[in-house]
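TEACHING EXERCISE
Course module: macromolecular assemblies
Task: Read the component lines below, then compare them to the predicted structure of the full complex.
Student: A.B.
Group: 4
Components provided:
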Amino acid sequence: MIYVENVTKEFKKTVKNPGLAGSVKSLFHREYETVKAVDDISFEVPKGEILGFIGANGAGKSTTIKMLTGILTPTEGKVEINGQIPFKNRKKYVKEIGVVFGQRTQLWWDLPLLETFSVLKQIYQVDEEQFKTRMAFLNEVLELDDFIKSPVRTLSLGQRMRADLAASLIHNPKVLFLDEPTIGLDVAVKNNIRKAITQINEQEKTTIILTTHDLNDIETLCKRIVMIDKGKIMYDGALSEMKQQYGKYREVNMSLFQNEDYEQLHFEEDLKLGGDDLKVVRNKEKITVTFHSDKISVSDLLSYILNKTQVKDISVNDVNIEEIVCRMYGNGVSAS
Amino acid sequence: MRFLRLYGTFIALHLKKLMEYRIDFLTGAVSFLINQITNIVFIGIIFSQIPDLDGYLFYEIIFIYGFSLVPKGIDHLLTDNLWKVAWFIVRKGDFDKYLTRPISPLAHVIMEFVQFDALGELLTGIVLVVVASVKLSISYTAGKIVLMIIAMLFGTLIFTSIKIACSAIAFKIKQSGSILQIFYMTSDFARYPVTIYNEIVKNIITYIIPFAFTAYYPASYILRGNDPVFCIGGTVVLSLILFGFSLIVWQKGISAYESAGS
Ligand SMILES: Nc1ncnc2c1ncn2[C@@H]1O[C@H](COP(=O)(O)OP(=O)(O)OP(=O)(O)O)[C@@H](O)[C@H]1O
Ligand SMILES: [Mg+2]
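Instructor-supplied answer key:
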């Protein structure tokens, strides 16, 4: 369904020398510097899958989405979706896709939502009957009724995001691209949007690519993730596998009756563990020990702690995916 | 057909919006009117000093001036959104949405906005042409009127083409509002007979940025019976060449579009 092969995108940036003299100079002689926003990435997405696309700020997620949606032309490489090349057969291609950029609306500022939808209906040439069923469905899952008569400019962020999502789905696209669809939303609206995405995926077998910084989105929606960093793919595979691979870390959260007791704990000397294998973070009362469960067993670690200190409260948890991703972003661990 | 229906929808929506922003619309229209009146008073002052301008009488100048407002006004009414493309739609990355919709991005961006303020300009133009025609007792035939309308429509295309080409430069350099403004301002030269300018200016506004064909040449056919093949035919041919050229520039521009990081 979606094939991305060795795709690279470079942006030319003019180098501005500071000051007036610099500006004048750059009028006559421009210096360019190329930025590789996306660097030789390849992946495939089968029909009906929800793919989570993650990475730190500036990693190249939006740039990739823009190439997949035909907005940007790749500098190198090949993109093929539904058998079409996005920027070449654009008009035909975009009929089959829906796009939401969470950062900016695609709707008309002054138009009431209802009219916005009817204009889009004309643009996408959706026939009356389909439009009605579609609207009823979207109304139900996204709860648009409360604000469907209001002009877009009066909508709250959460309402606007639901409206944008609905607008991207009016023509029943085969592929849906969502670039940060939950940015800035409260938990309830996030849940609402996730529910809608799940339903659309299940009912219509819509293929979905989703970028987000909220890893709860990923956990609830995606089985597979692609992680990029500085334009390169760092990980492509099942979420569960990534958790296994990097998720052998666990953490002990505890607090002590006497804070001075902490001085009794010398993990490094006593257990010969440190670096990535064992990390301690203290936040006031709260002590968090993150450790690799292959290097030391939970029971060994607990008995060590319990022997040395008076523990008020202690629990052992899996490291959440956020922690894992943070580790990967930070270390630049490459994996395949 | 489909375009016309869609355009109809957009216009209807704009009329509704107009009602919502009545005050803004009235202010806009009045400011255009004041602008036009100032220009006419200015022409009046010139003529109080001199009997004629290079052989053209006051009402002939008014005729050319009024004529020039018609294509300019129609273009202004219909394609004003191109200014926004030149100034900020491209620079801010807001052009993205036009590229993800299954109609021509150019048609879409143009249809999306109707500048009703321009009605002031258009109406002033028509009134001036009518008043001048009466004062000069021009004898119209059906053929003359048809040719005049053709010239006005293709003259509009000259304005639109120049706006398309200039705003498309923004795709390459992010913002081309000032460039568009410079080109657009040269249309002011077309309000007067080209014979009053030196050869350089005359050739530029005749063959390069052919604004002279949006008013002076077709008007001189009506007023003086100058060669219609050159005066009206020139408008049609040059506007079509320019339009073709502007579409190529636009298409090239779109493939250079870089969006914006967000
Ligand atoms: N239009 C552009 N012109 C120049 N450089 C750009 C442009 N768009 C993006 N970039 C650069 O490309 C890189 C990737 O940006 P991109 O927007 O794809 O990141 P992202 O992964 O979406 O980040 P975020 O999570 O912050 O949205 C960044 O270094 C950015 O500065
Ligand atoms: Mg982004």
